[in-house]
Amino acid sequence: YGTLYIVPTPIGNLEDITLRAIRILKEVDLIAAEDTRHTKKLLNHLGITTRLISYYREKEAQRGAQILDMLTEGKNIALVSDAGTPAISDPGSVLVRLAHEHGIPIVPLPGPSALISAMSASGFEQTGFLFHGFAPSKKGQRRKLLKSLKDCEYPVAFYESPHRIEGLLTDALEIFGNRKTLWARELTKTFEELEQSDLACLRKKAAEKKQKGEFVIIIQPGEKMAVKGESIEELINWYRDNSDL
Ligand code: SAM
């Protein structure tokens, strides 16, 4: 059997690709890409000439079966998406599942993901977090989802597009109340913007000006739900009280 490599690619800044990712993309027999034209630009930038085939959401099952055949024949294949880590709100899970079911070795490479960068910059207390990817675009479904997440005791992270950001923040404010929230826009890009504020301020900001770019929104749990150390002061006092020094 060949190996299926899962290879994260930059989410904006082309410097954000690991040495290992570059080597694997060079060495494999084939790269399965969400959009071959998009990935071709990255490969040209890196001077890589490996053959590309397309693997996109609408054809995941059909393409997955074809790629599985190639893996079974012994070909090594790298899976990439347009940006970030494949199979994280991106195509990939069908192929990965098929590979598991057929005993194909799977090697996931660590690398860029908008979720992890945003979460690391949130400053929110983290014994865990809940990642929902994109919230539904239909208002009714989105509100239903938010209601189901209201009592979650962990920060909740969403991916969002510029034309839906106001809708998400409006519904979240109404359903959650005015919680502390992180706005992470255009991470790693020229107009990167990171703002820790509250839902009311961020909703206002989104409503005032037509937004551009890509967003990660992370909402803190409600006060009663929050895990130990809701405020920094509380946490510092706790350490003082519990320290032997
Ligand atoms: N697989 C990707 C990852 O690992 O981050 C996510 C792909 S998903 C189709 C695209 C969404 O990810 C965007 O709509 C946005 O919510 C988020 N995203 C991707 N790049 C981003 C960036 N540079 N800054 C902020 N959010 C980003």
From TrEMBL:
Q: Which InterPro entries match?
A: 4pyrrol_Mease (IPR000878), rRNA_ssu_MeTfrase_I (IPR008189), SAM_MeTrfase_RsmI_CS (IPR018063)
Q: How is this protein named in the record?
A: Ribosomal RNA small subunit methyltransferase I
Domain Tetrapyrrole methylase residue range list? 3-200
Write out the coiled-coil annotation as residue ranges. none
Q: What's any one GO cellular component for it?
A: cytoplasm
**Job description of the protein:** Catalyzes the 2'-O-methylation of the ribose of cytidine 1402 (C1402) in 16S rRNA.
Annotated GO molecular function terms are:
rRNA (cytosine-2'-O-)-methyltransferase activity
- Spell out the reaction equation it catalyses: cytidine(1402) in 16S rRNA + S-adenosyl-L-methionine = 2'-O-methylcytidine(1402) in 16S rRNA + S-adenosyl-L-homocysteine + H(+)
This protein's UniProt keywords = Cytoplasm, Methyltransferase, rRNA processing, S-adenosyl-L-methionine, Transferase
* EC primary class: transferase
* EC number of this enzyme: 2.1.1.198
The record's section on PROSITE patterns has:
RSMI
